[in-house]
Amino acid sequence: QAKRAGGAGWALFDQAMGADARAQIELQEDLRAALQRDELLLHYQPKVDAGNGQIRSLEALVRWQHPRHGLLGPGQFIPVAERFGLINALGGWVIREACRQLGVWSRQGLRLRVSVNLSVHQVRQGHVVEQIEAALREHGVSADQLTCEITESVAMEDTAATQAMLAGLARAGVKLSIDDFGTGYSSLSYLCKLRPQELKIDRSFVQDLETSADARAVVDAIIHLARALRLTVVAEGVETRDQAEVLLALGCDELQGFFFARPMSVQALVAGGLLTSDGQDPVEFTASAY
Ligand code: C2E
Ligand code: MG
Ligand code: MG
Ligand code: MG
């Protein structure tokens, strides 16, 4: 009896898996085509300098304008890309597109820096440094304009492949940022060895700043740690004025989040007046946000 019920359960499970697998395979086929057809795009989210309210750096976040499903976020297709071996092609596209845009901005007299996110597979696989160097060369961008964001758990992988990749990045002169910092298990001695240029405080701590003394203590500790190691510290996911004020008071270097600006297309950044050339005033809305 129990066995029969179990059997029926398995049949249902198989069916559900089947539907899900089919959907994934379809999405994977679409993604292969998308890589050829220019359906991917980058949105950019400003990081606001806490000192002067200026935007000198932006994070590139990939989007997919799917012909039937509409605009998809990375959570909806990065896992598929990883599962079906497309992540290096996708990641390569992101790197080239970010460098192309940096080249365009450069020629417009905008001195900006861009961060790209690297997935664990890109870090382990090893061609990423060559991809980056080729893209920088092709678009005449200097290496220090590009930062690679790697999550804390990936960055802390003490494997030969990860080590070689991070050493290659450093040799190329590309900056390293540890993303979602505080959620992994950092060895502080390894962090010293890694020598990133930036730490990004995970959104979960920022979210709880106003309500949790613990979250505030963790943020304070991360900022002090970054200070001691002479790293730039960025808070991600800043959604309210109160959070921004606490972060400013604690000495955070850069703030990023919906309170300042959502990730947006280049056209929207321009239309919003968020990109200014050197010598111009800091962005109005950030000044008022202060
Ligand atoms: P992440 O690198 O930690 O990026 C921050 C995410 O938080 C982004 O989501 C951003 O839109 C969102 N965010 C920013 N400010 C706020 C805020 O104030 N409140 C809230 N609730 N959310 C905020 P998105 O664009 O959906 O990206 C999610 C993740 O996907 C990224 O997390 C990153 O890990 C990954 N990702 C994005 N683009 C790429 C890419 O080109 N390659 C790879 N491998 N991964 C990417
Ligand atoms: Mg990131
Ligand atoms: Mg992050
Ligand atoms: Mg995050």
UniProtKB/TrEMBL annotation:
Name the UniProt record assigns to this protein: EAL domain-containing protein
Source organism, top-level taxon: Bacteria
Sequence ranges assigned to domain EAL in this UniProt record: 24-277
